[in-house]
């Protein structure tokens, strides 16, 4: 698969032409695999390149003074994990793999050349970082306003749509090779709390998360518990899971 | 900011359950935490004491 195959697929916020995709592909200097549970970049690292996630899952995280981790972003294939690092030049969080991954590196010097000569292409790269920002805002809402069930449901509903946009979910199920500890760090809960929530969702026939696979039996109810509205993901109509459940009130 | 969106104290309490020897507290609102039994007992005592004081303050204010 081409390194840039999944980048901005099925998004309304920006669409790459095949020429633009090929241009970005030519800027890749290295493709490599990383093992699961490995740190790619530490908070404070200076950056010289941006990372495209081709396969696998990665996270951005911040550890507190006692080493407890809060995941601040979860990345799926097709994500430019640290494109925002190009203008920022120094990372304010750490990046690690959850699973074995395949990544492609694009030097910042190449991004500069591409964006200097093509303002529209630069706008599209900018738009992709704004997608990250939109998710950050939604994660703030998730952690600040939703109870344990809502937080887990929201993450699963969101991931369902994100993977649907790249053809990795059919709207009712997807592979998610992460642990309950990972899920606890994503949702700001303990593993015990996550375990209880998942058990309740299974018993109430909403969804199951077992053997690295999420199966959604009742998407409408999952999205209602999550107060999930996929508008912030800017996916095209027809992407599996992108039809939001009817909500009595909107948090947007 | 209109009155409906001004942050106000919650009128409905959270729900605590025991799971695998740990106390899980859900709600109100976005609260979702886990505590040891000792920490839960300490928190509970602190909450009860604060509730008694808050009621007295409300009564004093009339």
Characterization of the model:
The complex is a heterodimer of chains A (252) and B (62). Chain A has two domains: 18-136, Jelly Rolls (Sandwich); 146-233, Winged helix-like DNA-binding domain superfamily/Winged helix DNA-binding domain (Arc Repressor Mutant, subunit A). Helix content of chain A is 38%, strand content 20%. Chain A is built from eight helices and ten strands. Chain A has helices spanning 18-26, 85-88, 108-117, 119-145, 148-165, 180-187, 191-203, 219-226, and strands at residues 30-34, 39-41, 49-55, 58-63, 69-75, 94-97, 101-107, 173-175, 207-210, 213-216. In chain A, the strands form three sheets. Chain A has a four-stranded antiparallel beta sheet. Chain A has a three-stranded antiparallel beta sheet with strand order 1-7-3. Chain A has a three-stranded antiparallel beta sheet with strand order 8-10-9. The longest helix of chain A has 27 residues, at 119-145. The radius of gyration of chain A is 18 Å and the shape is globular. By secondary structure, chain B is of the alpha+beta class. Chain B is built from one helix and three strands, in the order βββα. Chain B has one helix spanning 37-61; strands spanning 15-19, 22-26, 32-36. A three-stranded antiparallel beta sheet of chain B has the order 1-2-3. In chain B, a hairpin with a 2-residue loop joins β1 (15-19) and β2. Chain B is flat. The interface between A and B is medium-sized, with 16 and 13 residues.
């Amino acid at each position: 698969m081409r390194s840039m195959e999944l980048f901005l697929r099925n998004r309304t916020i920006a669409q790459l032409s095949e020429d633009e995709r090929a241009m970005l592909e030519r800027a890749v200097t290295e493709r490599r695999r990383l093992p699961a549970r490995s740190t790619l970049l530490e908070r404070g690292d200076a950056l010289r390149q941006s990372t495209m996630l081709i396969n696998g899952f990665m996270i951005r995280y911040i550890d507190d003074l006692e080493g407890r981790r809060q995941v601040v972003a979860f990345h799926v294939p097709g994500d430019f994990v640290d494109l925002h690092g190009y203008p920022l030049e120094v990372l304010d969080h750490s990046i690690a793999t959850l699973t074995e991954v395949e990544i492609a590196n694009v030097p910042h010097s190449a991004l500069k050349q591409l964006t200097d000569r093509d303002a529209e292409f630069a706008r599209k790269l900018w738009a992709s970082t704004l997608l990250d920002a939109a998710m950050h805002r939604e994660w703030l809402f998730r952690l600040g306003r939703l109870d344990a069930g809502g937080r887990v449901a929201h993450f699963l509903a969101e991931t369902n749509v994100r993977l649907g946009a790249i053809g990795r979910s059919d709207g009712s199920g997807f592979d998610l090779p992460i642990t309950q500890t990972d899920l606890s760090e994503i949702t700001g809960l303990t593993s015990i709390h996550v375990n209880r929530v998942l058990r309740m969702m299974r018993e109430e026939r909403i969804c199951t998360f077992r053997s690295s696979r999420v199966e959604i039996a009742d998407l409408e109810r999952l999205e209602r518990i999550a107060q999930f509205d996929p508008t912030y993901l800017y996916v095209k109509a027809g992407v599996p899971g992108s039809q939001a459940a009817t909500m009595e009130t909107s948090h947007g | 900011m209109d009155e409906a969106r001004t942050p106000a104290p919650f009128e409905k309490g959270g729900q605590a359950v025991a799971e695998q020897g740990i106390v899980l507290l859900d709600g109100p609102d976005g609260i979702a935490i886990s505590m040891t039994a000792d920490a839960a007992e300490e928190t509970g005592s602190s909450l009860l004491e604060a509730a008694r004081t808050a009621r007295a303050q409300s009564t004093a204010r009339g």
